[in-house]
Design goal:
Its EC number is 2.5.1.61. By secondary structure, the protein is of the alpha/beta class. It is 32% helix and 24% strand. It has three domains: 122 residues, 3-Layer(aba) Sandwich (D-Maltodextrin-Binding Protein, domain 2); 81 residues, 3-Layer(aba) Sandwich (D-Maltodextrin-Binding Protein, domain 2); 92 residues, Porphobilinogen deaminase, C-terminal domain (Double Stranded RNA Binding Domain). Bound molecules: the ligand NCc1[nH]cc(CCC(=O)O)c1CC(=O)O.
């Protein structure tokens, strides 16, 4: 009987996500009469070692995945569970995303000291984020806010809200929900105010492209609507040659599923300028995810928005 070795980062969120995926894969094995066992192996990534530094200044795409991919290519591990938003647009030769399961809540959310929402924050309130995308959008919505960097895993960011003089912090709702901390969320930011990061809320299971046993198992785990939506968002990402540390966002959703025959999607893409408090946004509807993300990116490039990204590309 084969044991599938699952590589994971050591953060609380990574361990929780990995365990959740293993539980679901075990259930799928049961349903389909497959007899695989699972084992986890912890791996420290460069991103984990430098969590206290401003990542956009350190630069480099895939800070949280490189060491894990190396271990997969070496055969030390067989699969890895990633937050799709941490996965660079281009994967190394020989590796692939074998499954994208059903997406969690894609929205950003606020945890506030007062327990109130964004509109109730006092003038000049100090809001912590570690993302240029969130920074640009918050400032575009409310120029008076004092948006400042806050780094660390979600647990340490929540502690900083309590111990430092932040009035609020912005986080992905999905991470909090997966940790069972949904009750800490005081305000969900609508996607019109804070367009999420590419792939936010979705997980991706990476594997070797030549591992057919694992690929067959993972194919059972795909959620087809999430696969299409994430494909559209990632085509936007690759068209802009962006990573997780540039001020861009994209959100796609299936708006007409029609039993999987020519499903219709809506894709919205955004480029933000965190210094000038400006955002550019475009949306289109269609049914070819790879072309739609690219088309949205081209419209934004035509408006000159992509020159903003030059300063942030690693
Ligand atoms: N860049 C960090 C990161 N990568 C994935 C998540 C959790 C949410 C998700 O799965 O999108 C987070 C934390 C956050 O942005 O608040």
């Amino acid at each position: 009987m084969r044991t599938i070795i699952v590589g994971t980062r050591q953060s609380a969120l990574a361990l929780t996500q990995t365990q959740h995926v293993i539980d679901e894969l075990k259930e799928l094995c049961k349903q389909h009469g497959l007899s695989y066992q699972f084992e986890t192996k912890k791996i420290v990534t460069k991103g984990d070692q430098i969590l206290n530094v401003t990542l956009s200044k350190v630069g480099g795409k895939g800070l949280f995945v490189k060491e894990i991919e190396q271990a997969m290519m070496n055969g030390e591990i067989d699969i890895a569970v990633h937050s799709m938003k941490d996965v660079p647009a281009v994967l190394p030769e020989g590796l692939m995303i074998g499954a994208v399961p059903k997406r969690e809540d894609p929205r950003d959310c606020l945890i506030t000291k007062s327990g109130k929402g964004l509109d109730d924050l006092p003038e000049g309130a100090k809001v912590g984020t570690s993302s240029l995308r969130r920074m640009a959008q918050l400032k575009a919505y409310r120029a008076d806010l004092n948006v400042e960097w806050i780094r660390g895993n979600i647990d340490s960011r929540i502690k900083k809200l309590e111990n430092e003089d932040f009035d609020a912090i912005v986080l992905a709702a999905a991470g909090l929900k997966r940790m069972g901390w949904e009750d800490r969320i005081h305000h969900y930011l609508p996607v019109d105010i804070s367009l999420p990061a590419v792939g936010q809320g979705a997980l991706g299971i990476e594997c070797r492209a030549d591992d057919m046993q694992v690929r067959e198992l993972l194919a059972l785990y795909n959620d087809h609507q999430t696969v299409l939506a994430v494909a559209a968002e990632r085509s936007f990402l690759s068209a802009l040659n962006g990573g997780c540390q540039v001020p861009i966002g994209a959100y796609a959703e299936v708006i007409d599923w029609n039993e999987g025959l020519e499903p219709k999607l809506k894709v919205t893409g955004l480029i933000g300028d965190p210094e000038k408090h400006q955002v550019w946004k475009e949306a289109i509807e269609g049914n070819v995810p790879d072309e739609m993300g690219k088309a949205v990116a081209e419209r934004l490039i035509k408006q000159g928005a992509d020159r903003i990204l030059e300063q942030y590309r690693g």
